Amino acid sequence: MVVKRLAQGARLSMARLPLLVGKGRVPVAPVHNIRDLWPGDAATGAMLIKGMMTQEGYTHPIGPGMWDNPDFEPAFREGLHSFRWLRDLRAMGTDAARLRARALVDDWLLNPPNHPMVRDCTVAGARVAAWLGHYDFFAASASDMFRQRLMARLLVEGRTIAALLPPECHDWQSLTALKGLLAVAVAMPEYAGFLSRYRRYIDAEVERQILPDGWHIQRSPEVQLRALRELAEMRAMMQAAQHALPHSVALALDKMSPVLRAMRHGDGCLALFNGSHERSSTLVEMVLSQATRTRVVASTMPDGGFVRAQSGRSLLLVDAGAPAPAGYDHNAHAGTLSLEFSCMRQRLIVNCGAGFLPEWKKALRQTAAHSTVEVEGLSSSDFHEDGTVARRPAHVEVDHATREGAHWLSLSHDGYYPTAGATYTRRLYLGNNGHRLRGEETIEGERELAFVLRLHLHPSVCVQPGTQEGTIVLEAGEQTWTFRATGGEVAVEESVYSGGMRPVPSTQIVVRVLPNAAQPAAVGEEIPQAPAGSGEGIPPGPTEDVAPGRRRRVIRWGLERERDGSGE
């Protein structure tokens, strides 16, 4: 490790040496044009012209000489020095936006910030890719002196990234570092060492992160989108320079795209698992179109640990895996066996999403912020102070059977065993027309346990009491659904939904079972048995037989759509 750091330090010192003459001359402009592929936000660009920036939930004034402001939070500082916000100024399409972009870049070049984050290879990779991707926007019409400063700095940045490889962390952002190195290699092909160093590390990085079924190892639809976006940009850069795309990148693009399609609801946006936000359906579609020409949707995702069940126009998504492994788990959630359910473009049952600010981020990672069962007020996974997972389920089991358009799921995990001595089993059934979803939640432990089923609802869903006891009517656009539950006390409580930039109020259905109290019989809403010949071995529901010294409690629930005028 000491030798590695010494070698890296020597390479960094070489990267910052004055540029040599002859072969080391700086090109006057990029040899190959690199185009930023993604849309910006004109409203954000207008804020930038006024000297204000919002990044990751934080807002601060920015401007010349303010790059090292000690008040900047790490997340804000990272966004600021990545220069991805250049696309927001470009989205305005005005000369004022062009001049503002040029002035900010020039001030950074004349007064390079000293904060260590500026030299992080992932931040530097995003920065050089943004500078080159927007070169025609802010630099092509600038003075010779400005363009000379920019190209000279790009060369130093490329050398810095090359010196810092391989990155110490191997999450999706390491792909950003490699993308930045590739951008410099394409812009300055006479420096062949950049491209060779990119090729040296890209295969191992992709193989480390992308699982055989196409899931990114961090198990987050948001990360899936971001990693796929980085790889799609690499493809565009290689095409601009007429280079052959590494086989690992081409294969990853083909495998990851069906998974991302599978994790979209009918509105085209992302499901909210493991730190995800909805994101723009337009952006998601643009990333997919840049990544692959096919429109395949993943049908099975065993390595990523997700189940997708679609019947009619209804979609059920279930997190059927433990949180991401160590090293990739800093954004993992305690949402094992949580579900999301939608019909057409309408989301019904959701998870609460992800937070930007630390307090929200911490709260929304807990099991209570997911549509699953919470035992004794505990979470199925615990977290260290640094955000990594301290404890996770050791065993997660899943069986999925289908027959004539209907789906049967049997799932279980032992995440509550170390803290409460309990195991959790969830059985789900989605009818063949998509109009009926049934669930059976079973907690088996060494003692009587308090637990609660939480089904968080999308903010667009209006809740009304049903005509029968234990029923709730959900009004969702033109759709009407009826919820029923037995085995516990049914109530509607406040919730929160953070699928966008900030949390908004919402509601949740809760079915609560108290300890040492007579549990109402869990009758009705039974899940039909998987038909003979399904071949999937879906076990029957819980029987009356319980092992000596064990206690079992069951909640049964159902969600059924009423007929409407559309005939759906």
UniProtKB/TrEMBL annotation:
Keywords: Lyase, Periplasm, Signal. Residues 299-514 form the Heparinase II/III-like C-terminal domain. It is found in: Periplasm. Residues 526-568 are annotated as: Disordered. Residues 558-568 have a biased composition (Basic and acidic residues). It comes from the Bacteria. Signal peptide: none annotated. InterPro entries: Chondroitin_lyas, Hepar_II_III_C. Its main location: periplasm. This is Heparinase II/III family protein. It comes from Gluconacetobacter entanii. The lineage of its organism: Bacteria, Pseudomonadati, Pseudomonadota, Alphaproteobacteria, Acetobacterales.
